[in-house]
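Section 5: illustrative case.
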């Protein structure tokens, strides 16, 4: 799932002021500034504000945050697990179809989101899915490395200690 305008969902706790945007200046108050109540793209607090917002919502839905990876969430409903991985403005859901659809409905009721369908690529991995199976491949990465080597770079084997 793709979260549209994710950095605009976060609330900021600090007092942040910006100049009046061009075209929106208040007549006779051009020297005044605007105090932000919500996060904006480009604001250094924006990524953290978004993370706090989505984290609190996922906790409200009953997810548990992993202690090892703070972007990995899971919960169990009716003895069936659902796993959610958060990557900036993308959410990846793994689990039973009924749980995935329920979670998608809950998320889209809170955030403007788009369902991207089945995963095909993630962090350099190719992903193929069949019923009951998931295949991962680093073929693209390997082909990129081969292109670099074909461009004149050489790989050395240091396994013999030299």
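Designed sequence:
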């Amino acid at each position: 799932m793709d979260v549209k305008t994710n950095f605009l969902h976060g609330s900021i706790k600090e007092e942040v002021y910006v100049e009046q945007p061009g075209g929106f200046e208040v007549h006779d108050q051009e020297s005044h500034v605007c105090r932000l109540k919500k996060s904006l793209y480009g604001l250094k607090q924006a990524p953290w504000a978004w993370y706090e917002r989505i984290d609190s919502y996922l906790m409200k839905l009953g997810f548990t945050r992993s202690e090892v990876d703070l972007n990995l969430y899971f919960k169990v409903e009716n003895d069936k697990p659902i796993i959610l991985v958060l990557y900036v403005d993308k959410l990846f859901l793994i689990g039973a179809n009924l749980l995935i659809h329920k979670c998608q409905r809950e998320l889209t009721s809170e955030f403007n989101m788009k369902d991207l369908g089945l995963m095909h690529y993630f962090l350099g991995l190719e992903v193929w899915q069949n019923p009951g199976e998931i295949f991962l491949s680093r073929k693209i990465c390997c082909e990129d490395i081969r292109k670099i080597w074909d461009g004149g770079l050489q790989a050395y084997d240091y396994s013999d200690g030299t």
